C-alpha cells in the first residue's frame, strides 16, 4: 500500500469507527428509596449519565445490559425513564433477572424496538456494528436460560449479514467465573449458545452484566466480557466456601471502540472524580 492509499484507508477507518458505551446492573429503585436500603443507586446512575454525556468523543451508542431496576416495579421503571431522559446518546437495553419483562415493556414505551411479546430478543441494523440482543431472563428466577426458538432466531440473524461485526448483548454471562455464589445463578447450558456463536466468526464481543465485576474470557471463538455495575461491585472471592458480599468500589462503564483496521478494543472508564491529571504520563 502506497503512502496515499494508506492515508485514505486511515481516514476511512476513522470516519466509520464506532464507540459503544456499556453500563449495567443499575438497580434503580422508586424515588426516595435506596438499593438494599443502603446505596443511592438512582443517584449513581445519574452520575453515570453525566459521565457518559461528558465523554470526548461522545459514544455513538449506550448499551444497558440488564438489572435495570431492582424489583421490577412500575415506580422503578418510571424513575429509570426519568434518569435516562438526561442521557444525550441513543441507548438500547435488555432485561436482567431483577427486571420484569412485561412491566418493562409497558413502562418504557419509548423503546419501541423491544418485541411486543415473548423474550426481548432484537437486532439493530443501522450502525457500522450490528447490535444483537438476547433475553436470558427466566421470569421469577435468578439464573438465566435461552430457549430453542431464541437460539434459532440468533443463528438466522447472525447468518443474515456476515459482512459487519456483531456485538451480542445478554445479561447472564455464558461462563463460570469462579465466584461460587455467582456461578449458582449463571446461564444454563451455555454450550448451546457456544454452538451457535462458533458458527459466526463475525461476533466481535459478547457483552454481559449480572456479575457486577469486569471479567473477560475466550468463548466460542470470540471474547465474552462483563461490565461493572454503576452501583455496588460484588466481592472478588474465589474460595469455594466464600460468603457473598458487595463493596462500594468505584463504579465504571465499558467503552468498546471498533475500527475496520483494528477490530474492537475494550476499555474500562471509571465513573467519578479522581485526582489528576498528574504531571507525568
Strand tally is 13
Q: How many helical elements?
A: 7
Q: Look at the helices and sheets and give the structural class.
A: alpha/beta
Task: Calculate the mean pLDDT score and round it.
Answer: 94
CATH homology group:
Metallo-dependent phosphatases
Low-confidence stretches: 5-14
Class, according to the CATH hierarchy?
A: Alpha Beta
Helix content: 10-25%
Form type: globular
Q: What is the H/E string? A: HEHEHEHEEHEHHEEEEEEE
Number of domains: 1
> Major sheet: order of its strands?
4-5-6-7-9-8
Strand content: 15-25%
> What's the architecture, going by CATH?
4-Layer Sandwich
Radius of gyration: 19 Å
Would you summarize the structure shown here?
The chain is α/β, with parallel strands linked by helices and 281 residues long.
Question: Topology of this structure?
Answer:
Layout: H1 3-16, E1 18-23, H2 41-54, E2 61-65, H3 74-84, E3 91-94, H4 101-107, E4 122-124, E5 130-133, H5 148-159, E6 166-169, H6 180-183, H7 190-197, E7 203-208, E8 215-219, E9 222-226, E10 233-234, E11 246-247, E12 252-259, E13 263-270
Amino acid at each position: 500500500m502506497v503512502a496515499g492509499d494508506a492515508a485514505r484507508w486511515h481516514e476511512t477507518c476513522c470516519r466509520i469507527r464506532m464507540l459503544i458505551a456499556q453500563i449495567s446492573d443499575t438497580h434503580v429503585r422508586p424515588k426516595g428509596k435506596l438499593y438494599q436500603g443502603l446505596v443511592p443507586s438512582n443517584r449513581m446512575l445519574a452520575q453515570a449519565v453525566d459521565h457518559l454525556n461528558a465523554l470526548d468523543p461522545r459514544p455513538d451508542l449506550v448499551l444497558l445490559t440488564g438489572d435495570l431496576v431492582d424489583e421490577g416495579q412500575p415506580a422503578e421503571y418510571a424513575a429509570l425513564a426519568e434518569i435516562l431522559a438526561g442521557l444525550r446518546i441513543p441507548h438500547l437495553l435488555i432485561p436482567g433477572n431483577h427486571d420484569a419483562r412485561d412491566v418493562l415493556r409497558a413502562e418504557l414505551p419509548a423503546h419501541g424496538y423491544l418485541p411486543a411479546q415473548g423474550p426481548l430478543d432484537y437486532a439493530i441494523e443501522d450502525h457500522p456494528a450490528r447490535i444483537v440482543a438476547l433475553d436470558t431472563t427466566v421470569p421469577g428466577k435468578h439464573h438465566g436460560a435461552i430457549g430453542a426458538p431464541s437460539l434459532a432466531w440468533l443463528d438466522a440473524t447472525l447468518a443474515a449479514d456476515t459482512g459487519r461485526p456483531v456485538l451480542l448483548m445478554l445479561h447472564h454471562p455464558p461462563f463460570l467465573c469462579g465466584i461460587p455464589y455467582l456461578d449458582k445463578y449463571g446461564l444454563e447450558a451455555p454450550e448451546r449458545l457456544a454452538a451457535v456463536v462458533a458458527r459466526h466468526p463475525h461476533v466481535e464481543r459478547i457483552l454481559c452484566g449480572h456479575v457486577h465485576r469486569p471479567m473477560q474470557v475466550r468463548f466460542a471463538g470470540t471474547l465474552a466480557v462483563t461490565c461493572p455495575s454503576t452501583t455496588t461491585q460484588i466481592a472478588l472471592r474465589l474460595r469455594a466456601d466464600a460468603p457473598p458480599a458487595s463493596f462500594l468500589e468505584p463504579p465504571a462503564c465499558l467503552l468498546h471502540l471498533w475500527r475496520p483496521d483494528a477490530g474492537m478494543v475494550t476499555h474500562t472508564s471509571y465513573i467519578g472524580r479522581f485526582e489528576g491529571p498528574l504531571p507525568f504520563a
